[in-house]
Amino acid sequence: MLKKISVKNITLVAVVFAMMSSPLFAQFDIGADVVSRYVWRGWDFGNSAAVQPALTYGTELAGGALEIGAWGSFALTSGAANENDLYVSYSTGPVTVVVTDYYFPGYTGADKFGNYGENGGHILEAGAGFSAGIFSLMGFYNFSGFDSENSAYVELGVTPPYEVEGIELGLFVGAGNGVYDFVAAGESPEFVLTNVGLSVSKDNYSASYIVNPDQETSFLVFGISL
Question: I want to staple 145 with a disulfide (CB 3.0 to 4.6 A). Which of 87, 122, 125, 139 is the partner?
Answer without folding.
Answer: 122
